[in-house]
C-alpha cells in the first residue's frame, strides 16, 4: 500500500503538469494523441518498458531511444516531457503517468471508462450495446471500453464503472444462487 501512495505522489504531479501545459498551449488534442501512441507502444513492447524501468541503463541511452522510437511522430512538448522524465529519473513511472493523464482527459471530455470482463470476445454490436447502456447509466458524453476476456466466467459479462459493478456473468449468477440456497439451510 505504501509503494502505491509513493507512486501516486510521483505520478499525479507529472500527469497534471502535462495536462496543464497541453491546455495552456491549446494543444490538448495533439498531446492526447501522443499519449495514446506512447501507451500503445509501451503495451506492444515489453523491451521498451523494461529499458525505461531499468536503473542500469543510462539517461543518454534512454534519450536516444526516445528520439529513435518516437522521433518526429510526437509533438515537441511531449518529447520534452519524456526527456524531462529521463532527467528527473521518473521515466520508470511513464506507464502510470500515462494512465493518470488519460484519467484526467476522461474527466475533461466527460468520458466514462467501463472495465468489461467477458467469457468470449465481444462483437462490434455487443460493444456498441454496452457503450449505450453505460452511457445511459453514467450520463457521460461517451464511453471507453477496456475489455478483458476471462473464460472462467462461463458466459455473460461483468461491467465496472468507477465504484459500480454489474455482475451479469453466469459464474456470478451461480454464486448468488448457491448463497441463497445455503442461507435457508
UniProtKB/TrEMBL annotation:
SUPFAM superfamilies: N-terminal domain of the delta subunit of the F1F0-ATP synthase. GO terms for cellular component: plasma membrane-derived thylakoid membrane; proton-transporting ATP synthase complex. Gene3D superfamilies: N-terminal domain of the delta subunit of the F1F0-ATP synthase. The keyword Thylakoid applies. Pfam families: OSCP. GO terms for molecular function: proton-transporting ATP synthase activity, rotational mechanism. It is found in: Cellular thylakoid membrane; Membrane. InterPro entries: ATP_synth_OSCP/delta_N_sf, ATPase_OSCP/d_CS, ATPase_OSCP/dsu. It is a peripheral membrane protein. Its main location: membrane. Keywords: ATP synthesis, CF(1), Hydrogen ion transport, Ion transport, Membrane, Thylakoid, Transport. Belongs to the ATPase delta chain family. NCBIfam families: ATP_synt_delta. F(1)F(0) ATP synthase produces ATP from ADP in the presence of a proton or sodium gradient. F-type ATPases consist of two structural domains, F(1) containing the extramembraneous catalytic core and F(0) containing the membrane proton channel, linked together by a central stalk and a peripheral stalk. During catalysis, ATP synthesis in the catalytic domain of F(1) is coupled via a rotary mechanism of the central stalk subunits to proton translocation. This is ATP synthase subunit delta. It comes from Pseudanabaena cinerea FACHB-1277.
Amino acid at each position: 500500500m505504501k509503494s502505491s501512495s509513493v507512486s501516486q505522489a510521483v505520478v499525479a504531479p507529472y500527469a497534471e503538469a502535462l495536462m496543464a501545459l497541453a491546455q495552456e498551449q491549446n494543444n490538448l488534442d495533439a498531446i492526447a494523441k501522443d499519449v495514446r501512441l506512447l501507451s500503445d507502444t509501451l503495451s506492444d513492447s515489453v523491451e521498451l518498458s523494461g529499458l525505461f524501468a531499468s536503473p542500469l541503463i543510462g539517461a543518454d541511452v534512454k534519450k536516444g531511444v526516445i528520439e529513435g522510437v518516437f522521433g518526429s511522430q510526437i509533438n515537441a512538448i511531449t518529447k520534452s516531457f519524456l526527456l524531462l522524465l529521463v532527467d528527473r529519473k521518473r521515466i520508470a513511472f511513464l506507464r502510470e503517468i500515462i494512465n493518470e493523464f488519460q484519467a484526467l482527459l476522461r474527466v475533461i471530455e466527460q468520458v466514462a471508462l467501463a472495465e468489461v470482463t467477458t467469457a468470449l470476445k465481444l462483437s462490434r454490436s455487443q460493444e456498441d450495446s454496452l457503450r449505450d447502456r453505460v452511457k445511459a447509466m453514467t450520463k457521460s458524453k461517451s464511453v471507453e471500453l477496456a475489455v478483458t476476456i476471462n473464460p472462467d466466467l462461463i458466459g455473460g459479462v461483468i461491467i465496472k464503472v468507477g465504484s459500480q459493478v454489474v455482475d451479469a456473468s453466469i459464474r456470478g449468477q451461480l454464486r448468488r444462487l448457491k448463497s441463497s440456497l445455503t442461507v435457508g439451510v
